[in-house]
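ingest -> validate -> predict -> emit
validate: passed (alphabet ok, no gaps, 288 aa)
predict: started
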Amino acid sequence: MTQNGSYFVPRERIYSFFNASAMNNEEGLYIYWETDPAVARRVLPPMFKLTDPRHPVAVAYVVNIREPTFAPWYMEGGLYLLCQYRETMGVYFLNLQLSGPGAQMALASGREFSGLPKKVCERIVVERNGGSAHAFIEAKGKRIFDAQVEVGAYNDPELEKWNLPKAAGQQRGSSFLFQYKFGHAADGHMTFPSMSLMNYDSVTDYQTWEPARIDSITMEPSLDDPWAEIAVVKPLGAGYSINSNRLASVSPIAEFEGKEADALIPYLFSGRWDHSTITTGHQRYGQF
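emit:
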């Protein structure tokens, strides 16, 4: 029999609310390529340094998160650049796309608590048949990412020297995210007078990691989800993995105020909002 909830929940029942935040038993692809240095520098907020300014590395992952602790299962795809803030090495997320039964809860929790630039899309698929694997993301009628790989070896043998996962083991890493406060100027336009740069510190336990060769990557141009801006200059390789990722902590590492904070919003907009929020005359029916 279906139970009816209530808009009042006793406080003691909420003690377990995000007490453990983990994405357990996730499976899918992690794809590495070298992208255009000028574009990478333009989209990366100025306080970050690219790990290799002449050969910046972009990474996309597309996974099925089978057992999250905070939602039903969902699919997720993310796009980020390798970078550092002062002495801390990490990644800067440009965007994450989500689909499936748990997508709404995963979006709300990730954006509200951590500052992750998440959106919900129509469809995410990651599949494997023997030594071949395929993943794609469809958002607003556009296939913004599509990759085909062959399991076996990386495109660039240099990846063997990187600190990539092995067949099994544990890794810890930092993602750089922004949390912000908003206000309004005298003429009514929205302002962002305060920004906190957060270190999203997470631990990944790898059950498997299989090197793979990228056969193809295609990204359809999209006004609202411009993954194609991070073009492939050189495919480096991919990994097919089953793993579990858990949040260790989210902590502030820098604060920005006033005009300095407001000047960061151009870097954050497209990962979080669509152009329908800044234009008139828009309409869209159904899924697309």
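The helical segments are 37-43, 103-114, 258-262, 265-272.
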